[in-house]
Amino acid sequence: MSITAYPPKGAGLESLITERRSCWERLKAERRPIFIYGMGDGAAKIMSVFSEFGIPVAGIFASDDFVRGHSFAGYRVHKLSEIEEEVDDFVIVLAFAAGYPQLVEYIRMLAKKHTLYAPDVPVIGGGLFDYNYCMEHIRELNTVYRSLADDESRRVYLNIIHFRISGNIRYLDAVTAETDEIYKHILRPSRNENYVDLGAYNGDTIRELLHYTNQKYNTIHAIEPDKRNFKKLVTYIEENEMMQVSLFQCAAWCMDTELPFSAKSGRQSSLSTGGETIPSRSVDVLLKGAPVTLLKMDVEGYEREALWGAAKTIRHYSPKLSVALYHRNEDIFELPLLVKLLHPGYQLYIRHRLYIPAWETNLYAIPED
Questions:
Q1: Has this prediction a pTM greater than 0.90?
Q2: Domain annotation for the chain: domains and CATH numbers
Q3: Can you tell me the distance from the alpha carbon of 315 to that of 297, in angstroms, rounded to the nearest whole number?
């Protein structure tokens, strides 16, 4: 099966999944030195899997601007140029997420010069997404695959599966969608949206939506749990003198309660097993019956709970949905199945926006006309 070809609509994924060896198995069989590109949580997770598989680490390097003679996990952090001068042929394992065009293009260039893997490790939860995992969940995967509304969604779905098994970024490159395509051909926002943004960050997705509605909307309800992000969100709303906007510093959940929260820099703050507790609210209770036409959720691995918390709203108003599918291994089949359970009338689309690894792979659920 070609990376760019449309897979047969009626076929089962048993015959379409051609990547059988995981990137971990390929790395274990490598005889060339393996260098990890990046530091932080991603590198720590990858090194943990390396330890399980007995994969040796030859060293670690970072972008030149970040190399200041320091160490990570007991390894001195090198510049890529230093490694290229000393080693003729080596393998690169990418250990961070890239979502900016210039950085993605740089990684693509590296993949042309060197063998490069971008291993898929879950943002939340454990386990590895490999061929055996797919076969264990083949019934659920097939159910989602056959329920998708268009050929492109099926192609994206299969490529994301292949990427997660192989770590080969070509599978992502082949199905990366432009933002214009998603908004103009799938979401098709109007100028009178009642928008609910779960995981509003600093207002970036509100800003993105309004770009396509000529700054017009009816109402906006935005939820962001992180204090620093929420402050930026408030500043954005105030500086733009936006009306009919309700902001909530809380987490999206299936019921009203309090839960421990881990605040990290940027987008990676999330609910956790320990830490300061924060209010956690369900959409159904928070909105008090207010209408919703577009509901977006990117809540760091708790989309399942957020969907249950919006069940009445979804059933009553049939809003268009945009749901992150990439935080947990099981999200790729559990979340589409849950959306169909809550509202069988939705048409399901899947698109991948520019990102390495398979972050920004989203489910778009559109009510039938």
A1: yes
A2: 13-175 (3.40.50.20), 177-324 (3.40.50.150)
A3: 16
